[in-house]
Amino acid sequence: MASNFMIQHCRRKNQLHLKLSGDFDGSSAFELNDCLQKALKHKNRIIIHTDRLKSLPMFGCEMFHKQFGLRARAAQRVLFTGAYAPRIAPDGCPTQR
Known about the structure:
Layout: E1 6-12, E2 15-23, H1 26-39, E3 45-55, H2 58-68, H3 72-75, E4 78-81, H4 85-88, E5 95-96
Parallel strand pairs: 2-3, 3-4, 4-5
Antiparallel strand pairs: 1-2
Helix pairs in contact: 1-2
């Protein structure tokens, strides 16, 4: 994992907000996927905020898409927001700038 990558959690009713910061490399992608898999068992909606990311190397995106992208049903429950939302969100996940 990039030494400066962090995921901050904030719960609001039946939603979980994940605020990503730092560099999103392959290890960071694995950490986010693991966090999502656990959260999807307990929350109806997950909102991932990408505005605090410093960099988004293509390798990190590809790793995340391979790990999470096959879960079409779960993808509808995950919203990506912020400047990096279109690049990091796998197919089927809604985005918002």
